[in-house]
Amino acid sequence: AGAEEADGSSLTLGYFPNITHAPALVGVQDGIIPGALGEDVAFDTRIFNSGPDAVNALFSGEVDAAYLGPSPAVNGWAQSEGQALHVVAGAATRGTGLVVREGIDSLDDLRGTTLATPQLGGTQDVALRWIAEEQGWDVDTAGGGDLSIVPQANAETVDAFALGEIDGAWLPEPHLSRVLAEDDAHLLIDEADLWPQTDGRFVTTHLAVGAEFLDRNPEVVEDLLRGHIASVDLLNEEPERARAAAGDHLESLTGARLDPGITASAFDNVAFTVDPVAPSLLAGADRAEAVGLLEPVDLNGIYALDLLNGLLAEDGRERVAGLEG
Amino acid sequence: MPDTDVRDDRRRVRGLDALELQPRRGTGERSAAETAGRIWAATWPKLAAVALVLLAWQAVVWSGWRTEFVFPGPDRVLPTLFREITTPEFWEAVQVTMRRALTGFALALVVGVIIGIAVSQFKPLRVAIGSLITGLQTMPSIVWFPFAMLLYGISESAIMFVIVLGAAPSIAGGLTSGIDYVSPSLLRAGQVMGLRGVQRYTVLIIPAALPMFVTGLKQGWAFAWRSLMAGELLVIINQQNSIGWALSQARQLNDAERLLSYIIIVLVVGIVIDVFFNWADRALRRRWGITGS
Amino acid sequence: MPDTDVRDDRRRVRGLDALELQPRRGTGERSAAETAGRIWAATWPKLAAVALVLLAWQAVVWSGWRTEFVFPGPDRVLPTLFREITTPEFWEAVQVTMRRALTGFALALVVGVIIGIAVSQFKPLRVAIGSLITGLQTMPSIVWFPFAMLLYGISESAIMFVIVLGAAPSIAGGLTSGIDYVSPSLLRAGQVMGLRGVQRYTVLIIPAALPMFVTGLKQGWAFAWRSLMAGELLVIINQQNSIGWALSQARQLNDAERLLSYIIIVLVVGIVIDVFFNWADRALRRRWGITGS
Amino acid sequence: MTTVTETPARTAAVEIQDISKVFGHGKGAVTAIDGMSVTVGTGEFLAIVGASGCGKSTLLSLVAGLEQPTTGSVDAGGHKVAMMFQEAALFPWLTVGANIEVPMKVNKVPRAERRKRVAELLDLVRLTGFDRKRPHELSGGMRQRVALARALAQDADVLLMDEPFGALDAMTRDILHDELERIWREKELTILFVTHNVREAVRLGDRVVLLSSRPGRVIDAFPVEGERPRRIDSVQIAEQAATITDRLREEVSRHA
Amino acid sequence: MTTVTETPARTAAVEIQDISKVFGHGKGAVTAIDGMSVTVGTGEFLAIVGASGCGKSTLLSLVAGLEQPTTGSVDAGGHKVAMMFQEAALFPWLTVGANIEVPMKVNKVPRAERRKRVAELLDLVRLTGFDRKRPHELSGGMRQRVALARALAQDADVLLMDEPFGALDAMTRDILHDELERIWREKELTILFVTHNVREAVRLGDRVVLLSSRPGRVIDAFPVEGERPRRIDSVQIAEQAATITDRLREEVSRHA
Ligand SMILES: Nc1ncnc2c1ncn2[C@@H]1O[C@H](COP(=O)(O)OP(=O)(O)OP(=O)(O)O)[C@@H](O)[C@H]1O
Ligand SMILES: Nc1ncnc2c1ncn2[C@@H]1O[C@H](COP(=O)(O)OP(=O)(O)OP(=O)(O)O)[C@@H](O)[C@H]1O
Ligand SMILES: [Mg+2]
Ligand SMILES: [Mg+2]
């Protein structure tokens, strides 16, 4: 679906082969999303490995909608000065935390250790730096200071932890469950504990739509949202069946089935909701600013939740809140 | 007459001595035994190498240097490998990847040859973009993807674009070097005979530059393949699995067994292609009268 | 006497004609004007190329083909570039990367030369691992990381390991090809003169193989640099920023302006290195009496 | 400046006027040729002799247009020029037959015709049946003969030959002398023939030009008398050769 | 099967027994040499003549150990063998001086000594002052002379020379004949000397061996009479050369 032909006759959805993208996995596997779009809209998918690639694809109109983590969504919003995309729904919350090796039992023990985060300036990275800041530790972006924070890819982190190269890592699922299962590690901080203001919820995955596509084809986006809501509901109402479907889809994408134990534990740690938990995005951006990683970004307008709220209202459900003011 | 016979016998005996020094030549067609011997000579070192590697690998694993799920031994990897290659999906992936590799390489070949000739022909062009070509070559494929996507969208063409950008410089570079090193006496001979324009290239320059060109092709293949792998791991196109994607997924999931399986597969592909290039190279050298050391 | 003068004059006039055909030789030292002319000839095509590229780029941007945040023009990228290169951090990053590149390449050179000579010397070794070398070359750097980490942890050594694995095969391959194509008549001359062992290599084989070897080095550099970029974007080591890291960050943040800035920087580095290789190549050809076309 | 510009009656095919050739720059410069003028008539067989390194090959290169004179001018009057180099300079990747075909391909000779001429030429140089061999499978003298065949295949008006028979035995050389003379007659070629064998020069040449060394200049020119075909072992040739050799010896010893 | 195994009184330096050499396999096989036996005495100067392509270069390669005979044996009795190839085979990346130094480096001659000998040898081949030039800056004859200097620098007992003076003018060749003869005398070398110039063969050789072509065999051997140093233009040499040339001519025409 090139940018030129955004006439609503087709929709290309991007997502990752990852448990936190389960609404997409289930929705595609069980035909919920294509079903919601109807016969007239050609549905296509693109599977990405990383957020920036997906954002790039949104930028150039290669995909019309994509499931994204908060950092890529914010970056995309900031880089395009608010022109490229809108978040139309939440998809998943929670599912990250700081795992550390045995012997580190309190925050104070972290001093002098080496910890990994998935990406410099990413939500997990910001969370860890935020904690360090609160403790009054001196940390820099190049891995130095009282606490050495090294950004590296999750796969590398898992290996590095197993080899004793690092003392802990702030990881998303399913890497989190994997480390917990395979190494002598324990969860020091569940990220949910950092978000008392949102009842422990914080955004992990969004559904974002290209701004132009949204402008021209609101009805297609509405159908997409319908499918998305159905997928999320399925995940919450029939977890067994939905998880099996997600697992099947993952296997077809990655060629391998994850260890069932790890999958189960990962699913348990993630919660699926259409609420984008807007305050957590705002607070995350504030924290990033506070630790000096992000230029001030005006997130006003990143959410376009009217369609979602309309659908929720149809079902008589509670509205979700965006950023007001 | 008896004297001749004796001499003949003696000659035969000496001939056997000579046989030990080098393959006996000029004795009519080669026998089946000889052919078998040659195949054996070409095979045993490879088999020995494989056996040695497997043994060493297993030994390292048994030594308990690293835990099994970080560094599994052949006892675990080989079954995984076998399981992989017996699925039809695997062969589809191989097919997709090989098709991309070959078309991409063919494209890179055309582009590389045109650029190589143009650069070695026009001096200002060489000064202007000669170094740029190597510059492009040093660019990691990953940075090309945003551009590829801008130009072609997420499509096969985008992957082709990255392959061409990766491989064409090597091919062009090999050709340019080859052309630069064409013996001046052959160039003079060509000039006197009135070779000009296209004919000058087809009859003289390209054949004379072939040895370096083939070396460039080999390098170009390696670049093409690496670029392809980098491209395939970014995104799945048209729901088609591929080797690069499988490799990256194995890595993402820290699935050491599958990762090693796919490494072996990539190695095997690389070796098969190299055997082909070597064959071309040897044929070339035979033609030129340069027998291998 | 007057007759001779007339002839001399005529000769001088004809000499000027000849000058137009080719640089006048044998007329003592070159004048400053000539030197300036040569520098100009070596520079203007490059400047023209840069100007052309910038113009075309800006034109594409002005045409509104893509929005500015996807594909910013030079008017936005050049200031960003300028801002980057005026920070001390940038120069530290360049220093870190160049140090890694050069040490890695030096290491790859040693390993490549040893392997190249060993392979071209021992026939069974060539049969056994010759193709494996190309096989290794086709392996994307990404798959080496788990091994690098297994062997060296998160350290400079891990990056060196990846560079060597990337570059050494090219260097070895270039050397092997070069050795394979040494003219048989020179080899025979060497044999008769009793060149053997190390001396055979230092006096005959290596110099004779130099042209292809240099081509291999150039390719090796490209591989080394690409592997380094891939290595640097995986992890920050010892709190050191680097070009590869900056590149990957720009990509992570979808920051097209910084990405393009760093692409330009990588290109410039590549071009500078290539100029060096070209200089070596030309010196070589002058020695061999092969004057460029 | 002893420039001998003896112009024969016929029209000039190659006009070499007051040329000089300097290799290299500055201190390392070598003046290979200095102030040489020669006029070669159409249909003339000019033999050139001179000490080793006196600039004979350089002269032929200048005539063939492979190098530009530093001063002076060379004018081959638009004639097609073929050259046989001192080294055979065959294309190593082509068979003997294909090598000989190259100039015919340039001249767009049809395929069948090419085949025929290759066979004829190989026959001429006494290498029948060698057309599928590659240069590296030939002996030095054979390669030289293939180069001769290739030069003849070019169908040029002016033929430059740089020691073409140097690597041949006396017998084969005699045969090729006869053949070359015949072709020269039949096709009315103009030939510049460099040789170290003064007898050979007298055997074949209409005129023998003697060059001095470092820098190369024409120091003498000897018109050759005697009806063609001459016999190389004839007394007349021996006598003339002796005269030229004496002159050459004088020149070389003047330099040593 | 006319194998001439004329053994001179002195002990053998090179013993060639009943060798044959076949190039290639199957249908394309070429028998370059078949059933040849020659014994070269220590200190003998053996000249070898034969038609182009008869296997002279191949024979020298076999003696030098560069090729293995298909049958038969070649025994150089442990002597050090130097060879001057038909093509100069200089290392193009080295200067003339460095080229001549190569065999001395092999023999571990000290640096200063090397320099001195290079100057001497260049003087010998009349190329004084050329030591900093590169091969591509030399004329064909000059390259041949550098190759001669390099071969002499090897300090071998047995010297194989493949048409060493083919690209030289008569005068330079005469000088080098004298020099070669002097060195041969002084160092008591054994020399195998291939040439197409029968006079040269008679001028230098103790014995002239005549080879037939395809396959190469020894068909005749002529001991050369006459006190040394002989003059190449002497009547005696001319007569002997005529005899040998006649024999050669007979042989070549028998083949044609
Ligand atoms: N490319 C070159 N660079 C420098 N000097 C050169 C070059 N070519 C030839 N010369 C010099 O020019 C002179 C004449 O060389 P040329 O090859 O013409 O001699 P020649 O008469 O053909 O000798 P020969 O009979 O030995 O072949 C020699 O002194 C040689 O050193
Ligand atoms: N490498 C080879 N492969 C095939 N045939 C060869 C090879 N080398 C030589 N020959 C053949 O062997 C024969 C003898 O060659 P050789 O070079 O010994 O001749 P030669 O006596 O030195 O001739 P010339 O006087 O022309 O140099 C020739 O017929 C040649 O074609
Ligand atoms: Mg010459
Ligand atoms: Mg020979």
The CATH homologous superfamily of the largest domain in chain D is named: P-loop containing nucleotide triphosphate hydrolases
> What is the total tally of β strands of chain D?
9
Oligomer, anyone?
heteropentamer
Helix content of chain B: over 70%
What would the average pLDDT of chain D be, to the nearest integer? 87
Small-molecule binders here are: adenosine-5'-triphosphate, magnesium ion
Our estimate of the beta-strand percent of chain D is 15-25%
Gyration radius of chain D (Cα, Å) is 18 Å
Query: Would you tell me the structural class of the helices and strands of chain B?
Result: mainly alpha
Largest interface: B-C, 86 and 86 residues
Keywords (chains D, E): ATP-binding, Nucleotide-binding, Transport
Protein name (chains D, E): ABC transporter ATP-binding protein
Pfam family, one (chains D, E): ABC_tran
InterPro entries (chains D, E): AAA+_ATPase, ABC_transporter-like_ATP-bd, ABC_transporter-like_CS, ABC_transporter_ATP-bind, P-loop_NTPase
Task: Give an overview in words.
The complex is a heteropentamer, with one copy of chain A (325 residues), two copies of chain B (293 residues) and two copies of chain D (256 residues). With 325 residues, chain A is an alpha/beta fold. In chain A, 42% of the residues lie in helices and 19% in strands. Chain B has a single domain, classed as Orthogonal Bundle (MetI-like fold), CATH 1.10.3720. Helix content of chain B is 81%, strand content 1%. Chain B contains eleven helices and one strand. By secondary structure, chain D is α/β, with parallel strands linked by helices. Chain D contains seven helices and nine strands; from the N terminus they run E-E-E-H-E-E-H-H-H-E-H-E-H-E-E-H. Chain D has a six-stranded mixed β-sheet with strand order 5-6-7-3-8-9, with helices on both faces. A three-stranded antiparallel β-sheet of chain D has the order 2-1-4, with helices on one face. The N terminus of chain D is likely disordered. Chains in contact: A-B, A-C, B-C, B-D, B-E, C-D, C-E, D-E. The interface between B and C is large, with 86 and 86 residues. One adenosine-5'-triphosphate (ATP) sits at the interface of chains D and E.
